[in-house]
């Protein structure tokens, strides 16, 4: 598991300020065999978890999806990263549940939109036939 937060360089105050909410970070984790075991888009701060079945050195890459913001900030982005390793970090069910919930919410929204569209079409057909 890992927690991170980002700060953007502010030219005027010449210091790092808490990051803009609009900043997106992409987190990618590779196992010792180079296999990608996590690849997800997060915000300017976040918590990511992954389960590895291969012992050894893992590679964690965090990169900003916003080059425009980085350039605007004078190209400086500070990332605070806190990594926890081992069984004690195991709050996976809760995190997985949160991830699944957002996926479910998105799917439910899509399905509701489809239902609405079908109803509109049926009403339209009824009007035309009537």
UniProtKB/TrEMBL annotation:
Keyword entries, A-Z: Endoplasmic reticulum, Membrane, Signal, Transmembrane, Transmembrane helix
SMART domains hit by this protein: EMP24_GP25L
Recorded GO CC terms: endoplasmic reticulum membrane
Membrane topology: Single-pass type I membrane protein
Residues of the GOLD domain: 1-85
Record has Ligase as a keyword: no
Recorded superkingdom: Eukaryota
InterPro entries for the chain: Emp24-like, GOLD_dom
Localization terms from the record: Endoplasmic reticulum membrane; Membrane
Pfam families noted in UniProt: EMP24_GP25L
Family, similarity comment: Belongs to the EMP24/GP25L family.
Name of the protein in question: TMED4 protein
Source organism of the structure: Nothoprocta ornata
Top-level taxonomy: Eukaryota, Metazoa, Chordata, Craniata, Vertebrata
The gene coding this protein: Tmed4
């Amino acid at each position: 598991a890992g927690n991170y937060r980002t700060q953007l360089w502010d030219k005027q105050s010449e210091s790092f300020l808490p990051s803009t909410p609009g900043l997106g970070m992409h987190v990618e984790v590779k196992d010792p065999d180079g296999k990608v075991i996590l690849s997800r888009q997060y915000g300017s701060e976040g918590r990511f978890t992954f389960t590895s079945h291969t012992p050894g050195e893992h590679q964690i890459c965090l990169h900003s999806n916003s080059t425009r913001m980085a350039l605007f900030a004078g190209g400086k982005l500070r990332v605070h990263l806190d990594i926890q390793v081992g069984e004690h970090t195991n709050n996976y069910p809760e995190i997985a549940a949160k991830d699944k919930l957002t996926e479910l919410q998105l799917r439910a929204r899509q399905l509701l939109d489809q239902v609405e569209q079908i109803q509109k079409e049926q009403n339209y057909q009824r009007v035309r036939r009537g």
